[in-house]
Amino acid sequence: MIAAISGRSLAAAARRAGLRPLVADLFNDTDTMSFAERAIRLPGSIQTGIEADGLMGRLVELAGDDAPQAVIYGSGFERTPDMVDAIARHFFVAGNTARTIRAVKNPARLADLCTSLSIPHPEISSERPDNLEGWLVKLAGGAGGSHVGHASGGDNRPDRYFQRFVAGRNVSALFIADGREARLIGFSRQWVAPSQSSPYRYGGAVRLMRYSKKNRAQIGEWLIALTARTGLVGLCAADFIDGPSGLWLIEINPRPGATLDIFDSDETPLLREHLNAVRGAGAKRPTYAGSVASAIAYTPHPIRIFPPIEWPELTADHQPPGSVLDAGDPVCTVFASARSAATAERAVKNRVKALAAYWKEASPWGTGSPGGTVI
């Protein structure tokens, strides 16, 4: 059973691993439905996340007479880890415990952990700095970058905190842990798709074919130390800034994340390795040839009625016909592959631009007229 804000990538990975997924998420988009044995919508929204009230009832309803071998959760639980405890009282949770989530997703606890392990981590503050220049404001337990803003923009949410801005490139390390050891799967470079309200909104990622041997070794040591201290298990990701002042750990995502699509493999399905690691068995590392990139295509304008269209290959997370979209909503995920990371990144960004022509303000999509084939 899969529970997440969006369960499509996990459902696809489950099929690759020879599993039959039951999916509970906020969207039940057409892709998810095609992968799922059964699917059901969870209470909540993108803005508020998954709601605790009604969650267990929906999961029990989804399970029906079946006995799922495990529940794998995706995004949506970091802000309310108590929900993981609730699920664990009914099903076997193949993932990190609520205790581990709190250890790595609480900003103050992560900062203290990094200090104790001598891992560079940007300065944080729960209080608004006197001088806001060079500070970001974030939401504790947030995901996807939409919750990150410039501190000068103001934010009075009670669960917000401030973090020093660090210049450099965003690099993410996908790894698999067994509670004691951590093994690197690979590295990706991420970029943002800024909007007026979300300057650090997640744009996409590309799997890197090469990365500094020195940095790989250093990150590997840090992840082993973090795993031994927190008990991390399964597929996780750690986000870093690689800049002029060196490497800085920004955050840890204690669950399969946004880069699963670009790392999963038919030869070594990562969800199968995730289950093995959670159960204490050895996990294999896939081998890769070439690079894969993924990117989110957003609409900059409202779409009153989303039309039925024929989606091209190498797209996913399709909006169903009849959807009502606000400006900034995701329309689909786009993929590209190439021999090098730079070429794959360039190709996926070009495909996003080409597809965006179909939801410009002046296009028929913006007025609800019938749509055509996207090519």
TrEMBL record:
Keywords: ATP-binding, Nucleotide-binding. It comes from the Bacteria. Pfam families: ATP-grasp_3. GO terms for molecular function: ATP binding; metal ion binding. PROSITE patterns: ATP_GRASP. Residues 231-279 form the ATP-grasp domain. The keyword Transport does not apply. This is ATP-grasp domain-containing protein. The keyword Nucleotide-binding applies.
